[in-house]
Amino acid sequence: MKAVGIIAEYNPLHSGHLYQIAKAKELTGADYTVICMSGNFVQRGGPAIMDKWTRARVVLDSSPDERSNADLVIELPTIYACNRAEIFAMGAVRILAGIGVTHISFGCETHNFDGLFRIAETMVHEKARVDELISAYMKDGISRAKANQKAVADIMGSDAAILLEGPNNILSIEYLKNIIQLRNEGVNIEAVPVQRYVSGINESNALLGFAGSTEIRRLIRNKTFDEAAKYMPGKVCLALSEGGAPKERVDKAYEITFELLRNDITRLFPKELTYLYCIGEGLENKIKKEIVFAKSVDDLVERLTSKRYTASSIRRILMYILIGLTGKTADRLTGITRDGKVSEPALFARVLAAGKGGREFLKKVKKEELATIPVITNINRFFEENSNIELELLAELDVLAGDMYNLIFGRDMYEYSDKVVTPYIEV
To answer: What gap in Å lies between CA 41 and CA 316, rounded to an integer?
Structure first.
């Protein structure tokens, strides 16, 4: 059995994503396509433009071409989905491996796949040296991403380091690192990179019908939905339009998010902020100072962004404040502590949507005992039967993230609760 896993956010699903799914199937000849998708909050720290259940459902059959449709969608838990590239990739790759996929496909900006592999191999085999260089550069007050790039330049030269300028290249290298580590552990996963087609993350090409998710979200918020719709399947456009105009709904969600953040930050003392994930080294004082002057989430992010903290890392930190995620809990779940110690991460595969092929895949996984991590189809039954404290924490964090998402989008807290909504199963 061949199963290709794809790591995604689909925020929102667009024509470039459909191209990648079809290409991954073509390159692997896979019998099944499994998507590991971010939940209600995404890697850059904000709420997804549509909830995870809707995004999972539409990816099963958004394209009239069956080659572009997926079979199964599982959730990338919040602790991994809303985290830096290293932890995002670690969680996603190991969840896909844990459910029995044989290939993992991912998009990148470059066609120089060999270059990506060489960087990943170097970072795995010379991890101690890389970590030492990153730590030294970060002491100079620059971000982890920039420190990572400088470390690669020191070891492999500037030509290799250039590859770390693309956000998808950065993630690709992290995926490859985890695939290499899994191979060292005896788990054979084949990497299948796919070069992004035509448009970059912040670009669009109306003539060919491709645009990055960031650009599509910008069009939705700043221009007209009709223009953004050029780059998305019809079913995605329809799902986005449910409940009113997407722009007004997203703008309102950002307003509510800011009010919640302003309340939380105002009532917390600086020392209390330092208990939260990734806050320290004086950032707590900066947050307390700037919340008084900020007029919106975007304004607050701009005020807090610096050489050390990128806009994306600040958005993630604000999300941690929103859900009250402590550093102690995050370290316990990811297995990666602030001082660099590594232990086993908490992992499970929670099903969000499954088509006919997805149901077949899950049956084979169960029959052949391919899964090395729990597979969850009923979250309430999981809570009743589970005895692992870390896994319970991991699931409760997803439930909490769902509650917060419903709150900021003005949705019924019970009707849309993670403990009430069930996976979408095609019959």
So the answer is: 9
Q: Do the strands 210-211 and 204-205 form a parallel or antiparallel pair, or are they unpaired?
A: antiparallel
Residue of 371, 398, 378, 395 lying closest to 38 (CA atoms): 398
Stretch 259-278: mean pLDDT = 97
Residue 189 and residue 183 in contact, taking contact as beta carbons nearer than 8 Å? yes
Look up residue 297 and give its amino acid: V
As a whole number of angstroms, the distance between CA 262 and CA 309 comes to: 20
Flag whether pLDDT at 207 surpasses 70.
Answer: no
Buried b (16+ CB within 10 A) or exposed e, 404-415: bbbebbebeeee
> Residue 191 phi/psi, 5° resolution?
-85, 135
Which residues sit opposite 274 in a β-bridge?
Answer: none
Locate 308 and state its tokens.
Answer: 């050390």
Q: Which of 62, 11, 405, 54 is nearest to 228 (CA)?
A: 11
pLDDT band at 206 (very low <50, low <70, confident <90, very high): low
Q: Which of 393, 255, 282 is nearest to 331 (CA)?
A: 393
| 324 has a pLDDT exceeding 90 | yes
Task: Note the Cα 247 to chain centre separation in Å.
Answer: 22
Own/partner pairs for 250-255, CB < 8 Å, 24+ apart? 250/49, 250/217, 250/220, 250/221, 251/221, 252/409, 252/410, 253/47, 253/408, 253/409, 253/410, 254/296, 254/297, 254/298, 255/296
203 φ/ψ sector (left φ>0, alpha ψ -120 to 50, else beta): beta
Question: What one-character DSSP code corresponds to residue 165?
Answer: G
Distance of CA 278 to the CA centre of its chain: 17
Distance CA(271)–CA(175), nearest Å, equals 35
Given a cut of 70, whether residue 205 has pLDDT beyond it is no
Q: What is the mean pLDDT of residues 393-406?
A: 98
User: Measured in whole angstroms, how far is the alpha carbon of residue 385 from the centre of its chain?
Assistant: 28
Residues 106 and 220: their CA atoms lie apart, in Å, by: 26
pLDDT of residue 141: 87
